[in-house]
């Protein structure tokens, strides 16, 4: 943007300097010279206004493009973040369910061991009593 602005200013300045130099170096009467200067000044002014309008239009177009792109990128980032959050929540829920399920299985296994352990102890006691008698 700065390069195009510098180019526009350079073109305008070059046009003005070239026009003034051509008018001043041309052999004309004062009235013709003043008329030519006025005409050239008017032409340069019109051209400057046209170029400034084009630069302004291009700037608005680029600003709209940047805004649209930024909006799209923000929307995609938000959707991605939401998806990641939902996945993490799902993983947490699955992990919690798995832990609860495993805990229940461990509890059941401990109860089985207790029951079988008591039965084994009872059997060994009976065997010992039988062997002692």
From TrEMBL:
Regions that span the bilayer: 6-26
Keyword Transmembrane helix attached: yes
Keyword Transmembrane annotated: yes
Keyword terms, alphabetized: Membrane, Transmembrane, Transmembrane helix
Matching InterPro entries: Desiccation-related_membrane (IPR052928), YtxH (IPR024623)
Name used for this protein in its record: YtxH domain-containing protein
């Amino acid at each position: 943007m700065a390069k195009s602005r510098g180019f526009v200013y350079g073109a305008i300045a070059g046009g003005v300097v070239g026009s003034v130099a051509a008018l001043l170096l041309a052999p004309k009467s004062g009235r013709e010279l003043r008329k030519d200067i006025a005409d050239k000044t008017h032409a340069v002014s019109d051209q400057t206004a046209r170029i400034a309008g084009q630069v302004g239009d291009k700037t608005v177009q680029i600003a709209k493009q940047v805004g649209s792109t930024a909006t799209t990128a923000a929307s995609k980032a938000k959707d991605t973040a939401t998806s990641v959050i939902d996945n993490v929540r799902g993983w947490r829920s699955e992990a919690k369910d798995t832990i609860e399920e495993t805990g229940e299985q461990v509890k059941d296994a401990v109860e089985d061991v207790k029951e079988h352990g008591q039965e084994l102890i009872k059997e060994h006691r009976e065997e010992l009593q039988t062997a002692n008698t």
